[in-house]
Amino acid sequence: MTANQARASVDHFRLGLLFAVGSALAFGSSGPFAKALMEAGWTPTAAVVARLAGGALVMAVFATIVRPGWVREALRHTKTVILYGAIPIAGAQLFYYNAVAHLSVGVALLLEYTAPILVVAWVWMTTRRRPTNLTLVGVALAVAGIMLVLNVFSGAHINLVGVGWGLAAAVCAACYFVMSANASNGSADSEGVNPITLAAAGLVVGAAAVTLLGVVGIMPLTFTTNDTVIAGWTTSWLVPVVALGVVATAVAYTLGIVGIAMLRPRFASLVGLSEVMFAVLAAWVLLGEAMTPIQAVGGAVVLVGLALARQGDRSEESADVTLPEGVPAGHAADR
What we know:
mainly alpha
């Protein structure tokens, strides 16, 4: 590899990392905004519908402007779009809320964030190649840090039904990383789905699926027009709804899909763990929920784990860089 190729590879990684971290930051803001709506009388399903419907609308407009043929492209990849919208988008959120109904929020989140372990296991199983020791140590440290950030050991209540829902949410979250790795990088000759098309169409499918579940009565669906409280200010319910749709959904999914397409799914899933830290910070700023010293230590441990996992990823053979693990060769162009 020449010096110019090495620089291009580093720049490619840094850009992908920037997108992935930005996605985690945007996703992390969803909890506080959704909680503000729930405290105003909304049911969790209603908050999910508002988030996905708003995100779908914004992404549809954006996709129409920058990629006019996105609808036709989505129709050509109907199976991928439906699976993406139903599993990683709608499924993960609905399963998580069901877990919260039976478990403490900390335990439910911890179960969902075992997704990186599932991704590493999936890559290991499909490639039949053991991850490096540094990657495995990074996974262990990152998970340990998440446990500290969530402070799950203080009065956590365990319920087997809730554990089942939480693990189902983890499976959906793992599918998000693996399926997003199959998105193309936007090249005209690529066989994959363009990230913008996948985000827009997937959100439309997800919003329709969750709305249908609410309308038929499987999930309780209650909206209100009560004012909400954000960062100590009383404001219209429209503020968190718009924030959920634009920032926590449209921006988050788009950055995430692009970032994952530029990184290995294993490492991208670990970067996604930083969403928990961002969620804690957002809850502190928007809801006044301060971070404890233990949570701060946990955040540092997560960062160390991510750094070790990245170093472990870099130590793999250079041939692997051109083909993200578990992704068919037809989707590997220019990665």
